[in-house]
Amino acid sequence: MTPPDDAVRAVEALLFAAAEPLSVDSIRAYVGGVDVRAALAQLERDYAGRGIALVRRGERWHFETAADLAHLLRRDRDEVRRLSRAGIEVLAIIAYHEPVTRAEIEAIRGVATAKGTLDVLMETGWVRPAGRRELPGRPLLYATTPDFLTHFGLSSRRDLPGIDDLRAAGLLDPVDLALEEALEVAKAADSD
Prior knowledge:
The protein is an alpha+beta fold. The chain has two domains: 6-72, Winged helix-like DNA-binding domain superfamily/Winged helix DNA-binding domain (Arc Repressor Mutant, subunit A, Orthogonal Bundle); 85-160, Winged helix-like DNA-binding domain superfamily/Winged helix DNA-binding domain (Arc Repressor Mutant, subunit A). Helix content is 50%, strand content 14%. The protein contains ten helices and six strands. The chain has helices at residues 6-17, 24-31, 36-47, 70-73, 85-97, 102-109, 115-123, 146-151, 163-168, 174-191; strands at residues 22-23, 52-57, 60-65, 100-101, 127-132, 140-144. Strands 1-3-2 form a three-stranded antiparallel sheet. A hairpin with a 2-residue loop joins strand 2 (52-57) and strand 3. Helix 1 crosses helix 3 (36-47) and helix 5 (85-97) packs across helix 7 (115-123). The chain is elongated, with a radius of gyration of 21 Å. This is SMC-Scp complex subunit ScpB. Pfam families: SMC_ScpB (PF04079). Keywords: Cell cycle, Cell division, Chromosome partition, Cytoplasm.
């Protein structure tokens, strides 16, 4: 096996030493005029099937323990913190519609959202304020964070399951399915 070139070694060393995941531009700022994307692709190939892996979360890169070995490194059990149904609904709305205001979340859910629900999601590090909507009162916008992607093992929001995936997994509520069927019937009647 031939040793990696200096560019790949520099990117590898930087990612190992980094305290947090780095974007391609951040890596380039450290290593100069190197083809960072080619170096990352080479590192992904080099670490495939090993005890650690180079992973991309959103637009940032970092090394992490291979998923199938993570249990070996856990000494204490993580405290399982269950989200309420409202918390799960709000998180899903933010993930699929971001950036979104609290009023938009409430309109989609059809009920008021307690401030505590958004606070819990921000405390977990999965949701963050994302600016303000240019409307009267300038309501706060909410979006998901890179920690959200990491926790759920997603590379980007494009990896979120679609309606067909949810239906196939049996994760849709029977009420949701009945509503969806009623909407399809109404659409068909409108088109006739």
